[in-house]
């Protein structure tokens, strides 16, 4: 028996393509989203006939395929036709009209954006974008600070489709009337993957990412189950990558259940371990958010007062900030016709399952 059989060599790796576990990776096949993809394709189809396309509002929880489905279709467009131009922009990174217009210029191939104001740059976009039909996807649209770019595109780009992508279905209700009346989008709602679908998607990614036979079935089952319980494919991708790295750091030739559990423990280390560690008033705020997830902070404060909360609004805001930093909740600022507000969502902890 060779004592070194189970030890990984210095130049060996368990990964075939670690990038396949990145959230930005778009696989060749995207299972369980065929219905939504068909709706997206049908909205673009009129553009292929040199007519105006349909606008879409694409919503659903994080990590369930909204971005991947859109990018998959955009990739196919780029490969198969020059007749329709796809423009994808993440509004978390580009969150103002100026930044978005500059990015559109760059994607259209216009690089001379320095020392030009927004109006000058939009004239460039208008000139270039009206040469061919164009489809815009604005991901995480709830992060934008103003909507002048959207109003200008709706008014001055003639043959286009516009996709607005967000985790928050209620965000559309807050959109300014002057934009909503021109947009008139169809709604595509993505539902969470079930346990079997989660397993199949992660199994597909492991085939891209790992060398054959390095991932133990028990390790995969634990990661798949955890990802399904969290309702987020991205958690599974993180855990697969982290378990592989832990195995490599130990020079193991297999990714075992022990490595998978360590990856889960590492993910959980980013959070306070127990809600019981919080003071009584902060626990009350957390329970209000848990029972009323995805609501505006003002509405949650009203619920907090109804349940006997004694803190002032400023104190309530500090409690929310504390819970957000501890990753018990997420706080997302959104802009609508009523101005700026914050949507508070409850984050399930792995230890709850």
Largest sheet descriptor: 5 strands, parallel
What amount of the residues lies in strands? 5-15%
- Side-by-side strand order of the widest sheet: 2-3-4-1-5
Q: What is the CATH architecture term of the largest domain? A: 3-Layer(aba) Sandwich
CATH evolutionary superfamily of the largest domain: P-loop containing nucleotide triphosphate hydrolases
How is this structure best described in words?
The protein is of the alpha/beta class. The protein has 3 domains: 34-190, 3-Layer(aba) Sandwich (Rossmann fold); 193-268, Helicase, Ruva Protein, domain 3 (Orthogonal Bundle); 275-347, Winged helix-like DNA-binding domain superfamily/Winged helix DNA-binding domain (Arc Repressor Mutant, subunit A, Orthogonal Bundle). The protein contains 13 helices and 8 strands. A hairpin with a 2-residue loop joins strand 7 and strand 8. Helix 5 packs parallel to helix 6 (177-183), helix 7 (195-209) crosses helix 9 (233-249) and helix 11 crosses helix 12.
């Amino acid at each position: 028996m060779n004592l070194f059989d189970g030890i990984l060599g210095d130049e060996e790796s368990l990964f075939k393509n670690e990038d396949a576990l990145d959230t930005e990776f778009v696989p060749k096949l995207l299972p369980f989203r065929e219905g939504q993809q068909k709706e997206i394709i049908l909205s673009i189809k009129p553009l292929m006939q040199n007519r105006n396309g349909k606008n879409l509002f694409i919503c659903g929880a994080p990590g369930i395929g909204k971005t991947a489905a859109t990018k998959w279709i955009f990739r196919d467009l780029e490969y198969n036709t020059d007749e329709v131009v796809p423009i994808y922009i993440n509004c978390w990174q580009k969150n103002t009209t100026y930044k978005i217009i500059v990015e559109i210029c760059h994607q259209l191939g216009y690089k001379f954006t320095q020392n030009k104001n927004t109006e000058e740059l939009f004239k460039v976009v208008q000139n270039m974008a009206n040469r061919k039909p164009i489809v815009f996807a604005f991901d995480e649209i709830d992060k934008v600070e103003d909507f002048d770019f959207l109003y200008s595109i709706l008014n001055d780009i003639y043959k286009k489709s516009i996709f607005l992508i967000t985790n928050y279905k209620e965000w559309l209700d807050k959109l300014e009337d002057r934009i909503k009346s021109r947009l008139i989008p169809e709604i595509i709602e993505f539902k969470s993957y079930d346990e079997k679908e989660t397993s199949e998607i992660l199994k597909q990614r492991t085939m891209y990412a790992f060398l054959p036979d390095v991932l133990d079935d028990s390790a995969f089952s634990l990661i798949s189950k955890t990802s399904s319980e969290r309702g987020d494919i991205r958690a599974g991708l993180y855990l697969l990558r982290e378990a592989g790295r832990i195995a490599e750091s130990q020079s193991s030739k297999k990714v075992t259940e022990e490595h998978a559990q360590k990856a889960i423990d590492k993910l959980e280390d980013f959070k306070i371990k127990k809600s019981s560690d919080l003071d009584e008033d902060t626990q009350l705020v957390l329970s209000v958010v848990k029972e009323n997830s995805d609501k505006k902070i003002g509405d949650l404060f009203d619920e907090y007062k109804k349940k006997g909360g004694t803190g002032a609004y400023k104190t309530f805001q500090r409690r929310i900030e504390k819970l957000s930093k501890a990753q018990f909740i997420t706080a997302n600022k959104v802009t609508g016709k009523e101005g700026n507000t914050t949507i508070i969502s409850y984050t399930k902890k792995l230890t709850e399952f």
